[in-house]
Amino acid sequence: MITTTGLTKVYPSRGREVTALDGVDLHVREGEVYGVIGQSGAGKSSLIRCVNLLERPTAGTVTVDGQDLTALAGRGRRAGKELRQARSRIGMVFQHFNLLSSRTVQDNVELPLEILGVSGQERSRKALELLDLVGLADKARAYPAQLSGGQKQRVGIARALAGDPKVLLSDEATSALDPETTRSILQLLRDLNRQLGLTVLLITHEMDVVKTICDSAALMKKGRIVESGTVSELLATPGSELAQELFPVGGQASGPGRTVIDVTFHGEAATQPVISQLSRTYNIDISILGAAMDTVAGKQIGRMRIELPGRYEENVVPVGFLREQGLQVEVVDGPANVPAQTAAALVKEGAK
Ligand SMILES: Nc1ncnc2c1ncn2[C@@H]1O[C@H](COP(=O)(O)OP(=O)(O)OP(=O)(O)O)[C@@H](O)[C@H]1O
Ligand SMILES: [Mg+2]
């Protein structure tokens, strides 16, 4: 639904250049909620502003719903009109709502429809329908100053939906809101995503937002996407920074010469007594250092950090057993990234 290839943005800045985006390849599938997370200055806002061409990319392409927007940008009047039309099908929600204080709630929602040349009666009908959809039917005649932050953001969302967009872009839509209001706005975005089949690309610096509503996520650093995938793919990727932050488990080894591993349980595996089977099969004592169950992307997932006696090389077989049970196993201490073959070779060496 949204694809960028080699997206690059360089800002001129007091004689030198700032590379805000450095070759970003992003792929957001139709109907998903996709979160981009990263620290301040990572390039998140630049990315979202380039996706709807509010900002002209320095290089690379942006395709939304099959249309190459970069090809339309700055190519004569006809292409300009097509670009405006394409952009009207991309809704945008902002951190600070960007409502006009002199206009009523309803008139704020009607604004994009006025720009599209929709007639007065139709505008009014559509605005009231959208306000109803976001739960603000009774506030149509109020002014923004009379609303709470959460209500203002609901107006912002209703306005973003005025052009019947297929895609909604959100730049830190909940960053100015308290935790409870944040939850209700995220729930609204999730509902809209489901009810309208709306594809949502959201930018955030809060991992909780990703955890609550995202199907997929990407981690941005210094203008690049360093990790991306569906949330379950990420959780299944050894060493994934996003996975570790989405689902942290703590706990330190109780002493030297022990193997600490993180075991992730998805779905069915969560109900199998694998840890006691492991203990019985290999006659080893297992200590649980940390554990958590949580719902990520609507699925129940468990994570456990356990400790086995002996170094990693002595535990290759039990670790293999856990993997055979369909569990995702990551070695925390020691050679976390030693490929299975090398580990097997190490064991053979030890046996000689
Ligand atoms: N208009 C601009 N002119 C010059 N430099 C800019 C401009 N906009 C952004 N930058 C720079 O580009 C880099 C990325 O900025 P961007 O706003 O995309 O980051 P961000 O990830 O959204 O950060 P935040 O979480 O603080 O909103 C930063 O170094 C920033 O200073
Ligand atoms: Mg930003």
UniProtKB/TrEMBL annotation:
Alphabetical UniProt keywords: Amino-acid transport, ATP-binding, Cell membrane, Membrane, Nucleotide-binding, Translocase, Transport
Domain ABC transporter: start-end pairs: 2-247
Organism superkingdom: Bacteria
Signal peptide: none
Record has Cell membrane as a keyword: yes
InterPro entries: AAA+_ATPase (IPR003593), ABC_transporter-like_ATP-bd (IPR003439), ABC_transporter-like_CS (IPR017871), ACT-like_dom_sf (IPR045865), MetN_ABC (IPR041701), MetN_ABC_transporter-like (IPR050086), NIL_domain (IPR018449), P-loop_NTPase (IPR027417)
Pfam families on file: ABC_tran, NIL
Transmembrane segments: none
A GO term, aspect molecular function: ATP binding
Keyword Mitochondrion carried by entry: no
UniProt xrefs under PROSITE patterns: ABC_TRANSPORTER_1, ABC_TRANSPORTER_2
Protein name: Methionine import ATP-binding protein MetN
Biological source species: Streptomyces chryseus
